[in-house]
Amino acid sequence: MLFSSLTFIYIFLPLLCILYYSIKNAVWRRAILTVFSLIFYSWGEPVFVVLMFASVSVNYLSGRLISKAEDPSKKKLFMIISAVINLGILAAFKYIPLIVQTINVIPSVSIPVPDLPLPLGISFYTFQAMSYTIDVYRGDTPCQKSFLSLLLYVSFFPQLIAGPIVRYKDIAEQIPDRTAKIDDIFYGIYRFSIGLAKKTLLANPCGATADSLLKLSVSESVLGSWIGVLFFALQIYFDFSGYSDMAIGLGSMFGFRFRENFDYPYISKSATEFWRRWHISLGTFFRDYVYIPLGGNRKRWLFNVFCVWFLTGLWHGASWNFVIWGVFYACLLVLEKKVLFKLFDKIPKIPRTVLQYVYMIFITLLGWTVFYYTDFTALWHHLATMFGMAGAAVNDLFIDSVISDNAVLLLFSLVFALPLPAFISKKAGALIKNENVIIIIKTVYSLALIFLSTAALAGNSYNPFLYFRF
To answer: Which of 57, 133, 391, 421 is the least crowded, having the fewest Cβ atoms under 10 Å away?
Structure first.
């Protein structure tokens, strides 16, 4: 298993910081970050470090061959070979069981399903490694001649197993040497504390409540089915955006500047806008490396959209419900562009805005329902319950109790899923103006969040890691 959260916060991270900041030599600093990143990844499954080394080696060699080749066709060949190897490794560990299970649906076919362990974060670091080779091929970045630097880029622990997907060209200049000023370190701690609090104080309790409703078999109701998915929607947002906040914060502490990965997606008014705000690094990856090369908006637009969203769904997990989830959003994006946006434009502003938010809440909860259930029988039963087709009551006493017990959690989760706290913080900062006072307030706030998160981690065994399948 991974480091326990408390071991990471109070042993691993302080020890790394002490060693890193006590040394001024850039090469040694890179080596320290790389060694600690590999220790972090190998703590529970050291064998998969070999797989990571293989991935980095393939891309390092490919980058060197691409940069030395003068013939464009050879450059393209080396890039394609690298992509095939990368995707082949990913498919071998992640998708072979799904392929075999699908084949076994054929009558009289019964192939043993291989029980392959899934390396943590393999989809994240495979995409990052591929972005390096593709960027070198495109001429967007020079070839990296240092294997250690490329290994650090792929293995750097903050975003290694839960994202965001950091593209090589975005941090290529930061890898050789960086300067982490005191402001960067302070911001990093502040941002890390926010992400940690999202995970421990909001995502975990939302997840426990969601599981208690979505996995319910004794008492079910229409209201309970919707409330359960609402809590799951909040869990996955705070879980994923929390990890992204922690990654951005940790990166800042060591001089790296990662791009934002979430921009309050639940204030969106359409599926199109939602996917400009949700998991931004994945969306831009597929846009730049799949959608545009296929032709983008210029040719075969419909095919390109469905291809990208088929792959987006498949990336999230080796189960057909994720593919259906991806295709569901492809259909929504096409429907919005061809029909819904034109209809919305004909409605006056205020009712249009209300209608758009209602539409967005409805499709988002429907989408997360498909995402949650890998078992199609359970998925169909839950969908039927949501729409009152399973003979379930509209409400029951159990659901009333759950809502009553978690009313404060729901309120805080809804508030912090919106940009209201950030808006209030910005306005307060503008009123205070005194930089020293602002620093003191943020310091106290960060320490309070870390203290509360520590208490939650120490007293709660429910701390799921949603991204094991990624």
So the answer is: 391
Q: How far apart are CA 360 and CA 363, in angstroms?
A: 5
Distance spanning both ends of the chain, measured CA to CA: 16
- Known catalytic residues are 316
- What's this model's pTM, rounded to 2 decimal places? 0.92
Percent of the chain with pLDDT over 90: 58
Q: Is residue 470 pLDDT above 60, yes or no? A: no
Give me the DSSP letters along 210-251.
HHHHHT--SS-BHHHHHHHHHHHHHHHHHHHHHHHHHHHHHH
Give the integer Cα–Cα distance in Å for 412 and 226: 18
Task: Tell me the sheet residues that pair with 345.
Answer: none
Cβ contact 339:314 at 8 Å = no
How far is residue 7's CA from residue 133's CA, in Å, rounded to a whole number? 35
Band the pLDDT of 5: cuts 50, 70, 90: confident
Burial class (CB in 10 A: 0-12, 13-18, 19+), 415: exposed
What pLDDT does residue 17 have? 94
* Helices and strands in the chain: count of H runs, count of E runs: 24, 0
Q: What is d(CA 361, CA 266) in angstroms, rounded to the nearest whole number?
A: 8
H or E element at residue 308: helix 301-316
Residue pLDDT, tens place only, 393-434 = 777 777 778 888 888 999 999 999 999 988 888 888 788 878
Residues with Cβ within 8 Å of 162's Cβ and at least 6 positions away in sequence, in order, are 121, 124, 240, 243, 244, 247, 465, 467, 470
Joined tokens for residue 334: 């096409």
